[in-house]
Design goal:
One of its GO terms (molecular function) is UDP-3-O-acyl-N-acetylglucosamine deacetylase activity. This is Probable UDP-3-O-[3-hydroxymyristoyl] N-acetylglucosamine deacetylase 2 isoform X1. This protein is mainly β. β1 and β2 form a beta hairpin.
């Protein structure tokens, strides 16, 4: 497989069957987790076509897939090999709505009592980000304004 990396643009010369998008560059958000009340940091980083969306929790990786969903009250939780990440529905919905097919989601937590339990920030914590698709590019604020008329702070 041949890839060309030019600035923040990632191009695969092998067709995946559909045009795919990623974010133009890394975006970092730090805030208070909705359910835990603990400080969390989420970095949304570009990824190659075909890689999908996945969470990176230190050295552990959990694909954003129904295969890793577990029953939990009030939120969607993904779990793999004893590591879990909660409240993923807000971020994953925003990525789906904006057409971001591929990205690495790095998550850090400040909770020393639960080092393998992470929480994504609530949806309203995410500012705008710019997509880097193969053909189309969204405006920085267009995705947020297009979902229920929300406006960035």
């Amino acid at each position: 497989m041949t890839f060309v990396r030019n600035s923040s643009t990632l191009i695969s010369w092998i067709s995946t069957g559909k045009l795919q998008q990623t974010v133009a560059n890394c975006v970092e958000v730090t805030g208070i987790g909705l359910h835990s009340g603990k400080v969390s940091t989420v970095r949304i980083c570009p990824e190659l076509a075909g890689e999908g969306r996945y969470f990176e929790l230190g050295s552990k990786v959990i694909q954003a897939s129904i295969d890793f969903a577990k029953e939990s009250p009030l939120c969607t939780t993904l779990c793999k090999d004893g590591h879990s990440i909660s409240t993923v529905e807000h971020l994953l919905s925003a990525l789906e709505a904006t057409g971001v097919d591929n990205c690495r989601l790095e998550v850090e937590t400040s909770d020393p009592h639960h080092p393998f339990s992470f929480e994504v920030l609530p949806f309203h914590s995410y500012r705008t980000f710019k997509c880097s698709p193969n053909l189309t590019q969204y405006s920085q604020s267009g995705w947020l304004n297009g979902i229920g008329g929300l406006k960035p702070d």
